[in-house]
Amino acid sequence: MAKDEVSAATEKQASAPGAQAPSVPGQPGHKVTEPGRVSFFTRIALSPRLHEIFERTPLFNRVTRREGRALFDVVAGFVHSQALLAIVEFRILHILAEASWPLPALADRTGLAENRLAVLMQAGAALKLVKFRRGMWELAPRGAAFITVPGLEAMVRHHPVLYRDLADPVAFLKGDIEPELAGFWPYVFGPLAQEDAGLAERYSQLMADSQRIVADDTLRLVDLKNAKRLMDVGGGTGTFLRQAAKLHPNLDLTLFDLPHVLAVAEPFSPRLTLAPGSFRDDPIPTGADVISLVRVLYDHPDNVVEPLLKKVHDALPPGGRIVVSEAIGGGAKPDPACDIYFAFYTMAMSSGRTRNPEEIKKMLEAAGFVKVTKPRSLRPFITSVIEAERG
């Protein structure tokens, strides 16, 4: 399996005695002592006069118009997401999955006035979810994919909580509001009381719905053919291990999570061991030569992640591997999915944060891991993977 080092330059620097992982520009810990110059192309973009000249100049006007369209998409993004939410709530994609419909019949099915439904359908067509042909509205391939991807609709349906938290982004970033999303995922803050078991089940179900595609991408990037026992820490109801078992039926499996979560986990394999516990308070069981943390680190702050990584290190045998799989920021090359969506989402959760590869590498090495590598992500907006070995 071909792998990219987290950074060739970083590897060289980190190997030097007393060296520390370099900070990433724009991230905490990056020191700036004085203002820098505005770049040449940025100065051009700041000139209204040059905009007018470029707009009248062949070739250049293609660039300015493309950038103008991209900028408008940024400005209009909130309305796009709200149109998508309306399409989901009226189940328009599911209705069209059964058959194509003319607008009047579709209005009867949805209970919307034709003039308003027409606006929504045009929006859906602009998003390439639906299309209008021969007087009928029908499902487009992108719309079909949308309702096929596990967990995607549930993700969209719970977005109003996030939108309310971001209604005043200035207050949100200043920390002047208590995010509602933090109450949606309560058990990331610690063990649940018995009466909160329903919340754990709601969390686990939403994670399970979306985790299959994460599991599939992770398992394409990680080589488990020589592994003997895989333990998934914080693994919910076992979606990742279930997918691993399909690919490696002779692999022994351990699922470690809170008792309330494991109570609704299905023992899908005789090779599966359920290990109830809290990685905050309990040691990680030994016996696995590969331990995975799938969508775990970004749920928690550093003061939880650092001891967790040390516990994982201590539970592994020499040469044992840790697999971290989650949305990982782009660092010096920001990624829209990770550095916008997931970064703001985890901030609203009020518990964890989205980290970049250099930050995770540094934390792994501080816990005692070596040979930190990052396979090239298939779809960073789904997940990225970082692996390391116990030294």
From TrEMBL:
Region span, Disordered: 1-34
Q: Report the domain of life of the source organism.
A: Bacteria
Q: Which CDD domains match?
A: AdoMet_MTases
Q: What biological-process GO terms show up in the record?
A: methylation
Q: PROSITE patterns, per this entry?
A: SAM_OMT_II
User: In Gene Ontology terms, what is one molecular function of this protein?
Assistant: O-methyltransferase activity
O-methyltransferase dimerisation domain sequence ranges: 73-147
The record's annotation in InterPro entries points to: COMT-like, COMT_C, COMT_dimerisation, SAM-dependent_MTases_sf, WH-like_DNA-bd_sf, WH_DNA-bd_sf
Domain O-methyltransferase C-terminal, residue spans: 163-369
Is 4Fe-4S tagged as a keyword?
Answer: no
Q: Does the keyword Methyltransferase apply?
A: yes
User: Which controlled-vocabulary keywords does the entry list?
Assistant: Methyltransferase, S-adenosyl-L-methionine, Transferase
Any Pfam family from its record, for instance, is Methyltransf_2
Q: What is the protein name for this chain?
A: Hydroxyneurosporene-O-methyltransferase
